[in-house]
Amino acid sequence: MTQEALATAAATASLQTGHKGLATDWADDKQAFQVPWGKAMMWIFLLSDTFIFSCFLIAYMNVRISTTVNWPIPSEVFALSFGGEPIPLILIAIMTFVLITSSGTMALAVNYGYRLEKKKTVILMLATAALGATFVGMQAFEWTKLIVEEGVRPWANPMGAPQFGAAFFMITGFHGMHVTAGVIYLIVVAKRVGTGYYDRHRGGNYEMVEIAGLYWHFVDLVWVFIFAFFYLW
Description:
The chain is mainly α and 233 residues long. It has a single domain (41-231), classed as Cytochrome c oxidase, subunit III, four-helix bundle (Four Helix Bundle (Hemerythrin (Met), subunit A), Up-down Bundle), CATH 1.20.120.80. It is built from 9 helices and no strands. The chain has helices at residues 3-14, 18-27, 37-66, 74-77, 90-114, 118-149, 163-194, 197-201, 207-231. α3 (37-66) runs antiparallel to α7 (163-194), α5 packs antiparallel against α6 (118-149) and α7 packs antiparallel against α9. The model is unreliable at 5-14 (pLDDT under 50).
């Protein structure tokens, strides 16, 4: 019997089933779940962030339902004119399209990252960051229009319920901060991929690209809910 066969036989003999086997595995300091720590920590962070955004949206819905003052109609408030009749929600639609497109480029970046195609990974990550920056720029334009032209404030709203301004600036502002942080995060990771940092320090493992992708897809998903609850309701 070869040494390899003896080792296999010994490992098989040591296996135990049931609760006793589970206790033995944990006592042997075995990794119960094959999930890298970086990815696990990102999932925990995203879970906690999900609770925060859920609280914001639930609070918004509660205010929207309980207010006795007329709530502004989003299709009118967020209409934009290009020299003719105002087009309802046109800017919001473009913003949503840009953010959803960025999810596609991020998914491709992760794909090429695991193929170790460095150049394509960097280009797609920078394209994702550029789309995210475009989204933030359009959001800044939207804020400027509401503040300067419409006179909306977090504590006042000339178009109806004063809670409208508080809910709008809190929810979209918090999400905008996440997008801005994501843009910076993507640029940093892309730079490290391009300079070979992960080749030198992680043995060519581009797992960090996927972790950045998890964050970015979460930000995009949250916007879908904000879009549905705030702009379409």
